[in-house]
Amino acid sequence: MHLSELLQEDLVKTSLDAATKWEAIEELVDLLISAHELRLNDRAAVLEAVATREKSMSTGLARGLAVPHGAADCVREVVASLGISRSGIPFDSADGKPAKLIVLLVIPADSFQRHVGTLAGIARLARNEDLRNRIYAAQSAAEVMDVIFELEARQGPQEPQEPGEQPPEEPQLT
After folding, report:
1. pTM for the full model?
2. pLDDT tens-digit profile of 101-160?
3. What are phi and psi of 44, to 5 degrees?
4. Phi, psi (deg, nearest 5) at residue 141
5. What are the backbone dihedrals phi and psi of residue 21, each rounded to the nearest 5 degrees, phi first?
6. For the chain, what are the domain ranges?
7. Bridge-partner residues for 83, per DSSP?
8. CATH hierarchy code of domain 3-155
9. Orientation of helix 129-137 relative to helix 116-126, angle to 10°
């Protein structure tokens, strides 16, 4: 699944206010609520699902990317929001670097395994240095979406590795 299939402009925040990963998760869940992707009544359950997953193993990957996620009964399809932190947020990332690009996923509890590839696809796309730099430089949600659409169209479903890069481990969805 492409990132562009999960996001639209009202699900992108180009300047997160959060200073911690917990604040970032709350901010991105609230973005889903304000965009009517989640009901306010489901906020606590979604936050709990994502926090439970995050406490079991950090979803901070590498290269400034974090993909916090959780499975919840309140969604029928995967919903996502994206936030950019200009200064970076400590996310206990694999490489020790703060996360600047944070993609929150809420996955239907009854079809969690079916969506494992969604996280892997986001991780592949986010390994692209050009994509990361252009997203960080974007001044609006529309610009972020333009970058994502352009690079997905150019790269197709699989992204080639950057020169000299070893294939990283695929992130774990559990």
Report:
1. 0.85
2. 999 999 998 876 667 777 777 777 667 888 888 999 999 999 999 998 887 787 665 443
3. -60, -45
4. -60, -35
5. -65, -35
6. 3-155
7. 13, 102
8. 3.40.930.10
9. 80
